[in-house]
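Exercise: predict the fold of this chain.
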Amino acid sequence: MDTEDWPAFLADYQAALEEFERVTETLTLLLVDRTSTPEDFRGVFEAEANARDRVILTRIRLVNAWRETQPGFDLPTTLDAPPTRYAAK
């Protein structure tokens, strides 16, 4: 991965986030509008899912590139969860 191209990774992530916000706003307006019909929603749910996936993927790429440039910095892959009352004893 080319970790030197930070502006491009960040620009991709920001563009994905802006698209997600735009689609989510459209969906929210349709949900609030009591006159919306099923036809009004055609494609909006799928567009929101695609935009959400793009945000996740571009953020992962950005964070992975950052991690590769940080010598000695290792994020844990799992977090220790606090015990619950249902944990085996």
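Check your answer against the key: The mean pLDDT is 83.
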